[in-house]
Specification:
This protein is an all-alpha fold. The chain has three helices and no strands. α1 runs antiparallel to α2. The longest helix is centred in the N-terminal third of the chain and has 69 residues. The mean pLDDT is 89.
Length: 112
């Protein structure tokens, strides 16, 4: 009986250490994935903000240019607004495709 206790006791301590190490490894992997996803999201949000600012300023410039060409500034803004409404309509119809690709991207990043 004593011989089996001498064999089992070290084995149990090794199993316990293995379990703790495996749990710690899973925690570190989860932190790594979370940090990777958060940094990707932050960089993409910053890029989108800069792109949005560029688009707004470009729209204003195009509206003013069209207004000068057509003689009335408000006409240029109406034309640019109509163009933006057309783009928004296209995005509305392509929303399911964009959403599924975004979901697939997030899931693939979370699992890899």
């Amino acid at each position: 009986m004593q011989a089996t206790e001498k064999i089992i006791q070290p084995l149990l301590t090794k199993v316990e250490a293995y379990g703790k190490t495996s749990c710690e490894l899973l925690k570190l992997q989860a932190v790594d994935k979370s940090a990777n996803m958060a940094s990707t999201a932050i960089s993409r949000v910053l890029f989108a903000a800069v792109l949005l600012l560029f688009i707004v300023l470009l729209n204003i410039a195009i509206a003013l240019l069209l207004g000068d060409v057509l003689g009335k500034n408000y006409v240029g803004f109406f034309i640019v607004a109509a163009g933006n409404a057309l783009i928004a309509l296209c995005l509305f119809f392509f929303h399911p495709i964009i959403k599924s690709r975004a979901n697939n991207f997030i899931i693939s990043n979370a699992l890899n």
